[in-house]
C-alpha cells in the first residue's frame, strides 16, 4: 500500500505525483478538522458567551430580533443594535411620562373621589378573583390591601435633626436628578463624564423611589392618603412583575443538590457559575441571600415552589460538616461539598448570616430553624474570627484554611448593625454582651474613616505589623460610596439613641459633600488617604438604594419604617413582616 495512503500529510514532490485517492483523503481529513473546530466553537459559545441563546436563535432559528436587524441593511450589525436600544429607551421615557400624567390627573381629584375610585377598584378585583376560584386575571391570589405601617413617619421635632434629614433628601435629589438627566435607562451613572453605562435595568434600584416622589403629594386629607393611592395601584403592577421574574429564576435551582447557579440565561434557562469561584462553586453570599425574597414571593403568588427552593438550601447546609462551626464561602452545586475553605463575614459570605436572622424576624419570629442557625453561626464567628487589637479595637478577621488573615473589609462593617438587630432575641445572658460587640464594631469602622485624609473609609483595613484600622495595600484604599458603616450607625441609633451615631453619620455626610459630590452626581474615590480626591467616575446604584436611605433613616424618628413591621433586605429594600396567625405559618414548607 502506498505510504501516502496511510500518511495523507506525507510530502510529495509535486501535486501531480500524488495519487487521486490520497489527495481526496487529505482533503477529507482537513475538512474533518475544520468541521470539528467549528462544532467545538459552537458548543463553547453555548456555555461561555454572555447570552448564547441569542446567537443560537439568530444563526439556526432566524429569530425575529435577528431578522429585524438584518432588514436594516448591510451596516445594521451596529446601527441596528443602537437603534433598538434607542427605541427601548424611548418607550421607557414615553411610558414613564404617561404614568406621571395619569397619576397627576388622578391626584387632582377630590380626596373623596380618589377614595371611591380605590374602593371600586378593590371591589372589581375581588369579584374577578371570586369568579376565577380565588385568583385574579394573572392567576395570582387576591391580597386584601392594608395600610402599610410606618411608610411616612413624622418630621423630627429637633430642629438640627430635621435640618440634617433635609440635607440627605437634597443629596438624594441631586443624585437622582443627575442619573435621570445623564443616564436614564442605564444601570448606573458616570457623574464626572456625565453619561450612563451598563444598560441593564435590573440594576436601577431607585426607580420606584422616584416614581413615588413624582406621585406623592401632601395635600390629601381624610382617611385616604396619597401614599395609599400609590401603594394600591403600583403594588399590583410590581407584584405581577416580581412573580414573573421569580418564575424566570427557578431554572437556576436545577442542579443535583438544588444549590442554585450564580448565573442564569433567562431565555434559555441554562445556568453556570463564575469560573474563578473555587472550581465552579456557588457562593455563600449569593445562594444564601434569597430567603427573604423567595419566602415573600410565595406569600404574594400563592406558589410554594419559591419557599421550597430556599428551604432546601438549608437542608443541604444542615447535612454538611462545618469546619469549626463556620460556613466556607464556596459550595459545589453538583457534589454538595465545600470548595476552598475560605470564611468571611465580608465579601462572599456577608449577607448569608444576615438573612438567617432576618428570616426569623420576617416570619414574625416563627422560623426557629433560621434563628438557631444564626446564633450558632454567630458563636462560631465570635470564637474563631473576632479579635481585639493591641489598642482595644474589635474586628472580624478572615479565615483561610485554618489561618487568620487580620483584615476587615468595609463590607464586614454591616455586622455591627446585624449583631445589634439580633441581640434582643439572644439568650438573656448574652443580649448585653452582643450589644457591646455591636458597639465595638461600630467604633472600629468609624476609626477606619477617621484615620484617612478624606474621612471616608477604605475598602479594607488591616491589623498587623503595628497598623490598626488602616489600609496598607493600594488596591484596598478606594471608597465606592458603600453603605455598610452608615447601616450600622442607623441600627445602633435605633437601639441605643446614643447621639454619637448621628454625629458620626453627619461626619460622613460632610465628607461625601466635600469630596464625592460633583456637578453630575456623586463619585467614588480611588485613594482616601490622598489629600486631593481622585474620582473613579461611578455613582453606584447602591449609593441611592442603601447609603442615602440609611442616612435618611438615621435622622428620622423610630416610627419611620419601624423594625417590628419591616425587615430590610441586603439591598436596604423594606419587606413587611409576615404576621403570624392560626392558619398561616409562612416558614413551614411541606
From TrEMBL:
Instruction: Give the UniProt subcellular location, in the record's own words.
Output: Golgi apparatus membrane
Report the cofactors.
Answer: Ca(2+)
> What protein name is recorded for this chain?
alpha-1,2-Mannosidase
Q: What is the scientific name of the source organism?
A: Sparus aurata
Residue segments, region Disordered: 67-87
Q: Name one GO cellular component term.
A: endoplasmic reticulum
Annotated keywords = Calcium, Disulfide bond, Glycoprotein, Glycosidase, Golgi apparatus, Hydrolase, Membrane, Metal-binding, Signal-anchor, Transmembrane, Transmembrane helix
| Membrane topology recorded in Swiss-Prot or TrEMBL | Single-pass type II membrane protein
Q: Where does Ca(2+) bind?
A: 570
Its family remark reads: Belongs to the glycosyl hydrolase 47 family.
Q: Where is the composition biased (Polar residues)?
A: 67-82
Q: Where are the transmembrane segments?
A: 29-49
